[in-house]
Amino acid sequence: MKNGLEDVIAAETQLSDVDGEAGRLVIRGVSLDQLVATGTYESVATLLLEGLTERRFDSEELKAWLGEARERLFAHVAATDPVLLALPPVDAMRALIARLPDGEDFDTALRLLAAPAVFLPAILRLQAGNTPIKPDTSLSQAADILHMLTGHRPSNEQTAALDTYLVTISDHGLNASTFASRVIASTGAGLTSSVLAAISALKGPLHGGAPGPVLDMFDAIGNKANAEPWIGEALDRGERLMGFGHRIYRVRDPRADALKGALRPLVQTGQVDPGRMSLAEAIEAAALTILRERKPGRPLDVNVEFYTALLLDALGFPRAAFTGVFAIGRTVGWIAHAREQALNGRLIRPRSIYVGPLPKVA
User: Dihedral of CA 145/149/151/156: which sign?
Assistant: First the structure.
């Protein structure tokens, strides 16, 4: 038995490959670098879903269909009530998604791709005492998310930054939430059930809940001069540094560099405080130096959460909503894995080893 199923092969997939030793992520035969350089949410969604639904389409068709789906789904925002709005954003979003019909067809997949993009901004506005913004079908998924969040059309740099984030986190091997999606799909329950299970796994702090605390760390450090002493004292107390280390990567997480690159145009155009970016880089440098000194045998480098926190904060998302934004981007991966499992797999039924007491012999 391997606790946590470490190194156990549980599925064959054509969707993504995570090479932890080389620090490389490949999605359907395309490297992350290539995807980030040329891709959008719609293009990576088209790539991931190719051949897994009954409908063939290109990214422009998907953009139009997603716009129409967002518009239809906006009606569900009326179902929010004070009880739902008292929940954390990801829980409220999950509750609205649970209202959607289940199924295995393309229309179900399309609804699920559009739903979190509509529901999360609406919930955030309602929780802040503002009126939800109706989707704009002419916009891309990334641009409309920001439009529904702020009420304004985003800049090209803001749209590109969110697109980079959504592409970067679209799929990442057999992580906990993706495995949950495949387990549910293996029972034939339907795509909505698979996505709901995946969101439930994602909200756990050991999986999708760490970007917010990265900002808490930034706030606590405050300035570049305080980075080294603060980090040293945190490690002395046995605390984990948020944004560093990964279960799979033994080198730098390639997604961290993609997101850092997405921030640069925002800094250059004054849409992100250069001082905030400078502080992040100082914290990164100090942490890496101290971690190598303190833990020389452990591969602890920057992970996706570090620059995710800075990017989503710059785009106007409150830190309590970061897990929900992650779900917007990862839903396409969950759906693709669920369809792959349903088409090619079988019921997932591992064994357990009983270590409890034995019956008493008379």
Answer: negative
